[in-house]
Amino acid sequence: MRQSVTFTVSLPPAMSRQVERAMKAEHRTRSELVREALRTYLSARPSPSEQPTRAEAPAYREGMADYKRGANVTPQPDDNGSGRPRRVRKEELAEFFESMAANSKRIPRLPDTAFARESFYQDHD
Question: Can you tell me the distance from the alpha carbon of 43 to that of 40, in angstroms, rounded to the nearest whole number?
Answer without folding.
Answer: 5
